[in-house]
């Protein structure tokens, strides 16, 4: 396939200029497109959810591999292009919506009912709009239970935060959330020349396999803890928790808890492993 030529033709035919507001950087490198599809291991029994199909460059590869695809695109101009480009295909549902407002689980159930087929796996495969990467990832991890795997293009810096180790500058809320819900791996580093227009940053494809490895008694409190621990990451963690009123506990209560669990009162949020965060919550 010559995705670069196809992209140029479509952009000229529909008079399209990439819309920065929607984070539009179209992937035109066929090697990278093939790699993404290979990494996501799509089979003809899978439902693929593509967030932001844009002009359909990745969609073209996805539709040949999967049983069915759910495409969620915010830009009406792209909807027009996608309807035209995939006019001869019938194994997809295209929704013109903000993905953050879509109840994915519910739509997956509806598609299964409509086509009378139970999908083996539900896989997200996407070149994400970078301006809302984190909210999208949190939604896919936290709220949507039907999703099994996620293969996404993100900024390289974000990919590094997703798989960071403790005590590194990249370790933070995103690291802990990703680790809590999944096993993540950086698969491919992608130069900006693989897109038009070229983004200002280097990108990376990350794969996440959703799994539950940890036992947390109160998830809501766990999420509150990690957000408040990193709210002032340069402070000692006890001070950040007190200042941000974690679980409405006072300084003495927090210090007693840390002492009981053998966590130094000088610890900063980035120094603590996920197991310790979980221990804190499970001891409240
Ligand atoms: N998949 C295409 C590709 O790889 O060439 C386009 C990827 S582009 C980086 C991101 C896409 O997400 C754009 O098509 C953009 O319009 C769409 N988008 C941006 N915000 C969105 C949102 N909130 N919900 C759904 N789609 C969104």
Model description:
The protein is an alpha/beta fold. It folds into two domains: 3-210, Vaccinia Virus protein VP39 (Rossmann fold), CATH 3.40.50; 219-282, Helicase, Ruva Protein, domain 3 (Orthogonal Bundle), CATH 1.10.8. It contains twelve helices and nine strands. The chain has a seven-stranded mixed sheet, with helices on both faces. α3 (57-65) links the parallel β2 and β3 (68-73). The longest helix has 12 residues, at 104-115. It binds S-adenosylmethionine. Residues 22-27, 51-55, 57-58, 72-75, 78, 98-100, 127, 129, 132 line the site of S-adenosylmethionine (SAM).
The coarse silhouette is: elongated
Number of helices: 12
| Rounded average pLDDT | 97
Elements, N to C (H/E)? HEHEHEHEHEHEHHEEEHHHH
Helical percentage? 40-55%
Q: Tell me, what is the CATH class of the largest domain?
A: Alpha Beta
Give the distance, in angstroms, between the N- and C-terminal Cα atoms: 57 Å
Give Rg in angstroms: 21 Å
Bound molecules: S-adenosylmethionine
What do we call the CATH homologous superfamily of the largest domain? Vaccinia Virus protein VP39
Low-confidence stretches: none
Going by helix content, strand content and strand pairing, the class is alpha/beta
User: What's the story with the biggest beta sheet?
Assistant: 7 strands, mixed
Tally of discrete structural domains: 2
């Amino acid at each position: 396939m010559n995705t670069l030529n196809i992209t140029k033709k479509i952009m000229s035919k529909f008079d399209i200029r990439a819309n920065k507001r929607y984070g539009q950087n179209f992937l035109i490198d066929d090697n990278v497109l093939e790699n993404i599809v290979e990494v996501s291991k799509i089979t003809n029994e899978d439902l693929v959810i593509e967030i932001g199909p844009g002009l359909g460059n990745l969609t073209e590869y996805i539709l040949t591999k999967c049983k069915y695809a759910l495409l969620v695109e915010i830009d009406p101009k792209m909807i027009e292009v996608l309807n035209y480009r995939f006019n001869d295909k019938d194994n997809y549902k295209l929704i013109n919506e903000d993905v953050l407002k879509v109840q994915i689980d519910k739509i997956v159930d509806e598609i299964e009912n409509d086509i009378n087929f139970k999908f083996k796996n539900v896989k997200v495969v996407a070149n994400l709009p970078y301006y809302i990467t984190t909210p999208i990832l949190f939604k896919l991890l936290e709220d949507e239970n039907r999703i099994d795997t996620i293969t996404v293009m993100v900024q390289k810096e974000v990919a590094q935060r997703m798989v960071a180790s403790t005590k590194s500058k990249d370790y933070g809320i995103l690291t802990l959330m990703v680790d809590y819900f999944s096993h993540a791996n950086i698969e491919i580093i992608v130069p900006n020349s693989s897109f038009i227009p070229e983004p200002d940053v280097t990108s990376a494809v990350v794969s996440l396999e959703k799994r539950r490895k940890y036992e947390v008694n109160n998830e809501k409190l766990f999420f509150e803890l990690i957000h408040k621990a990193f709210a002032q990451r340069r402070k000692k963690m006890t001070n950040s928790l007190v200042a941000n009123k974690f679980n409405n506990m006072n300084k003495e209560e927090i210090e007693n808890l840390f002492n009981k669990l053998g966590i130094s009162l000088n610890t900063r949020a980035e120094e603590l492993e996920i197991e310790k965060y979980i221990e804190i919550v499970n001891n409240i």
